[in-house]
Amino acid sequence: MHFFSLDIYNGKYADFLERIKNPTQKTLIFTPNPEILLRASKDPDFLGVLKQATYNTPDGNGLYTGTMMQEGRSFFVSCLLTFFQKKKIQNQYGELIKWSDLTWDLFYEAQKTGKKILMIDNYRIQDPKNEFEIRKKSIQSNLWERIHQYYPSLYCTLVFDGDETSEALAKLIKKENISYIFSCIGMKKQEERLIEIFSFLPSDQKVVWLGVGASVDFLLWLQKRSPQIFQTLGIEWLYRLLLEPKKRWKRIWDAVYNFPKQVQKTTHSS
Q1: Cα separation of 117 and 210, whole Å?
Q2: How is the chain split into domains, by residue range?
Q3: Residue 217 zone, left/alpha/beta (φ > 0; ψ -120 to 50; rest)
Q4: Quick one: which of 23, 45, 180, 257 has the fewest CB in 10 Å?
């Protein structure tokens, strides 16, 4: 797959997971979904940031739809093929590699092998303003206990963005021999932050970095991931929209309408 001059990894999820479990050098992974790609198409700086990744992996069925539109199919036909011929589409264009799945699997891998994890969270909540922030502050203050409920032997360090410089975090990574870094501080900002930290480490540092959005909130049950049937059908976006319509509708609209519209526009202009 290829969008807006950005190459997207094409392969099987299991093969990719095995590849990153034991890296031979520092490895930077971004997982573009339609919303991220839409923003990158209109933000050259962000597109340049994404191009610095070791891997950009496909996160979202909309990328299949967009790819087939680039090949000349209509939006409607592309949607039907994406929904009803999933196996064939995955064999042709590669399987989805979602940040939520990668986060879960690498947490399990770290617990099993004794590898260490660093999480960079968005901000330390001091004065919660709503129910979500009240719950998140409670989790932040008891993170070790919370993590060890689900991963009893996991070594995990939490850092809040802004508490440490990128150079200081790089020194921590080298000193503690961190294997996996998860940044969940928001689109574009998290990718820029990882690249900045990345620059202070030698190329042979065996560490995997991921921009993971809300994965940590899923892991700690702060947010509930969609039921398996929604995941299987590729309509997790619909579940999130039904759950939080006011919060989600703009992002969903960007993914299911504005992204294919932008793909169509750029395809016809090229």
Answers
A1: 11
A2: 2-269
A3: alpha
A4: 45
pLDDT band at 220 (very low <50, low <70, confident <90, very high): low
Measured CA distances, 10 to 7, 40, 264 (Å): 9, 20, 21
- Indicate if the alpha-carbon torsion angle 68, 69, 74, 78 is positive or negative: positive
Enumerate the H helices of the chain as residue ranges.
13-21, 34-42, 44-50, 62-70, 75-84, 86-93, 99-113, 131-141, 143-150, 166-176, 189-198, 215-219, 228-233, 236-243, 245-253, 259-269
Rounded to an integer, the average pLDDT of 31-54 is 94
State yes or no: pLDDT of 131 exceeds 90: no
3-class SS of residue 225 = coil
Is there a contact between 149 and 139 (Cβ–Cβ < 8 Å)?
no
What secondary structure, in 3-state letters, does 154-209 show?
Answer: CEEEEEECCCCCHHHHHHHHHHHCCCEEEEECCCCHHHHHHHHHHCCCCCCCCCEE
pLDDT of residue 145: 72
Instruction: Kindly state the tokens that stand for 215.
Output: 């994965």
Residue whose pair of structure tokens reads 């999480």 in the numeric block: 119
Residue count of the chain, please give it.
Answer: 270
Q: What is the pTM of this model?
A: 0.85
Angle at Cα 260 formed by Cα 37 and Cα 223, nearest 5°? 55
182: tokens are 């998860």
Beta bridge mates, 156: 117
